Amino acid sequence: MESISIQEVAPRDGLQIEDQFVPTEQKIDLINRLSDAGVDKIEVTSFVSPKAVPNLKDAEEVMMSINRKKDVTYTALIPNVQGAERAAICKADEVNLVVSVSETHNQKNVRRTVDESFRGFSDIASYLSGTDIAVNGTLATTFGCPFEGNIDEDRVLKLVDHYLELGVMGITLADTTGMANPKQVYKLCRKVLERWPNLPLTLHFHNTRGMGLANVIEGIHAGVRRFDASLGGLGGCPFAPGATGNICTEDLVHMLAFMDYEMRVDLDCLIGVSKYLETILGHEVAGQVIKAGKITDLHPV
Amino acid sequence: MESISIQEVAPRDGLQIEDQFVPTEQKIDLINRLSDAGVDKIEVTSFVSPKAVPNLKDAEEVMMSINRKKDVTYTALIPNVQGAERAAICKADEVNLVVSVSETHNQKNVRRTVDESFRGFSDIASYLSGTDIAVNGTLATTFGCPFEGNIDEDRVLKLVDHYLELGVMGITLADTTGMANPKQVYKLCRKVLERWPNLPLTLHFHNTRGMGLANVIEGIHAGVRRFDASLGGLGGCPFAPGATGNICTEDLVHMLAFMDYEMRVDLDCLIGVSKYLETILGHEVAGQVIKAGKITDLHPV
């Protein structure tokens, strides 16, 4: 049996765009339940300006109050050295950097050129070099940009290289607005893994146009074994009007479990946490397994 | 470029379980628009008892009033010889037979044992043998039964064999309640196509647990080139409580188009017909591309 890592992003990527602020205690409770369910990594929060992302203004309190399990990596998104300092104070296991492959998207998202973003990352890498905090580098709009359209594969490879020169431990290729198709995923991931066979490579998909889990399948065929997903399918992108959310963690785990992949996470626990998430949010989530049940949930005759 | 056939089932599989009866004129209009969009086959209606499926009580009028295009196959579901007679009068190009691989599901669905169903199919085949109406044999619950659970692959092969002995021109493996996973799809389809390499084999998936398009990908890897889908993702199964619908035609075509598969159908036309379908039904459909737009629909900066 091959093993797959499930990396949960709902507490950051999902909650940041919810209409309502989720109280700190409930965030902590949600993250603790996700830890208990056995996901491999949790993006806990982001250390950005509370003005930019008011929903995550409690980043420090959340990161310092959760119960940390030794098998779980607790990561946080950071935009700059100040964020790195905050993450270091809270003893995050990892920080996650994000730059868009698309210049236009990067400008819209963080008001910097891609070069400016990497210069900032260099400062972050210097700051963190004396610590035991790992750095993950995410490339947003890897498979397409809602403004620019197609993304050049060679540019993706070049930016992966930039990240690796900074000493990042892992790379995430993110399909920020759900533009990837399965054939494209296979092709690009093969290119990346042929050049860097031992790179800890994560795929981050959105299900905007229904292709999310199909893209996971081709990512697996290409050799990828780490996937971001969001409980209940929470999330989306403010720069992609009309978009639905990230791929749904419990739907992903349900599919992979019945394909006989080994995962640390417990599917039943995860489904329970997703139902709990609905009570926190006060609205339904996009996940389908919590509606239809697992394929092994048989009906009485 | 490899070619893929898109077979539309919304007029039958979708409309049959809508809460409201769709007026005959609108059904005809919908089917004509689907023909114009360029789908390869349309399941127009079913010649069953109007008491059993009141939504399709206008089967004759619909089948006789639509504009028939020579490149499109117009098929109808039939349960018995009486249905075959009605289909023959209306000059359907093809009739579609359905039996469940699961005894329990067949009993629930048509109140017959699987053997009784095949005895009835034998009578239908005899009746149609002098006509130019093709026969397609569908196996429901091929990948799992909501009552019995797992389905034995050898039993599927045996029933395909039964169908072929009756002289059917094509076989459809249907995942009636959305229980198939991608690995299972690949394995079973390889088995079927290794035994019958030239069999016109269709896969019919539901997106009940989000795996629909992922299953298509593995069907393609296994060599399948014909897929049923339902405009807007309409449909479902009354015997699978909580289930969402069939895989969505325009989402399927959108994915395959950007994977460079050749299809007769025009994606933009299809998206237009799906929006028209929403106006007919008076409610939103499950399709995602009509909400998010195609990946080539860029946003202004």
From TrEMBL, chains A, B:
<dbReference type="GO" id="GO:0006552">
    <property type="term" value="P:L-leucine catabolic process"/>
</dbReference>
<keyword id="KW-0456">Lyase</keyword>
<dbReference type="GO" id="GO:0046872">
    <property type="term" value="F:metal ion binding"/>
</dbReference>
<dbReference type="GO" id="GO:0046951">
    <property type="term" value="P:ketone body biosynthetic process"/>
</dbReference>
<dbReference type="GO" id="GO:0004419">
    <property type="term" value="F:hydroxymethylglutaryl-CoA lyase activity"/>
</dbReference>
<dbReference type="InterPro" id="IPR000891">
    <property type="entry name" value="PYR_CT"/>
</dbReference>
<dbReference type="InterPro" id="IPR013785">
    <property type="entry name" value="Aldolase_TIM"/>
</dbReference>
<dbReference type="InterPro" id="IPR043594">
    <property type="entry name" value="HMGL"/>
</dbReference>
<feature type="domain" description="Pyruvate carboxyltransferase">
    <location>
        <begin position="4"/>
        <end position="271"/>
    </location>
</feature>
<protein>
    <submittedName>
        <fullName>Hydroxymethylglutaryl-CoA lyase</fullName>
    </submittedName>
</protein>
<dbReference type="Pfam" id="PF00682">
    <property type="entry name" value="HMGL-like"/>
</dbReference>
<comment type="similarity">
    <text>Belongs to the HMG-CoA lyase family.</text>
</comment>
<keyword id="KW-0479">Metal-binding</keyword>
